[in-house]
Design a protein that fits this description.
Elements lengths: L1 E5 L2 E9 L2 E6 L13 H4 L3 E6 L16 H14 L5 E6 L1 H12 L4 E7 L8 H17 L2 H11 L3 H12 L3 H12 L15 E6 L8 H9 L4 E5 L6 H4 L1 H8 L4
Parallel strand pairs: 3-4, 3-5, 5-6, 6-7, 7-8
Antiparallel strand pairs: 1-2, 2-4
Length: 254
Amino acid sequence: MLKVKVNGISIAYERRGKGTPLVLMHGYPLDHSIWEPLVPLLENDFDLILLDLRGFGDSQVRGTDSSMADYAADVAGLLDQLNIQKAALVGHSMGGYIALTFVRDFPGRVLGLGLVSSQTLADPSEKKISRYQEAEHVIAYGVNDVAEGMSVKLTANTSLQCILKELILRQRPEGLAGALRAMAERPDSSGLLSRVNFPLVLVHGQVDALIPIDRARNVKATVPHAHLTEIPKGGHMPMMEAPQLTAKALQGLK
């Protein structure tokens, strides 16, 4: 992977294809590799930028007190390094929270937005507490429990569960803890998208065990120009479970 210095840390990324710049942001507790099934399906139309968010994959860790604004600023800094003024953004799960923060903080740089298995709501108080508890557990005991528990929640596909478990085991406790705390403190973005006029694409599995599909349907109901693709029998990983359907939906960001 290529690496650049952004906001004082090293950010790793891959760049593939040509066309409209499209930044792909992975969810928790994963890295850029979840997007690989989509690359051959999108690289003829998009300049794909697949990054490892701070603390994940090959990107550097900086403590455990990151915020959604920090992740969004990293994306903006990476685009600056690549001399890209505007780009479309696709965020998976936590990556969607970062994309929404980018829309809030850098509205003039957004060509379009894709939310994959994500939502606009903030955490309720009980979820916020559980994230902080999980962050403490990860720092104390490592990522093994996260890999065991999350891999089966991400998808019902047993082959993908094995791949995802190995992927999670490669992550660092500090990166996971920072992301958990950042997600716990993220603001509600429910009213943000009603004011945008760029393309908005929603992709969501119908049996997502982590974020119910009703969250995507509610966004569609409040943003008339949004396009929602529901993945039949799909879980939390549409880009791996149904790459063709997911890629077709994201073509709407050209």
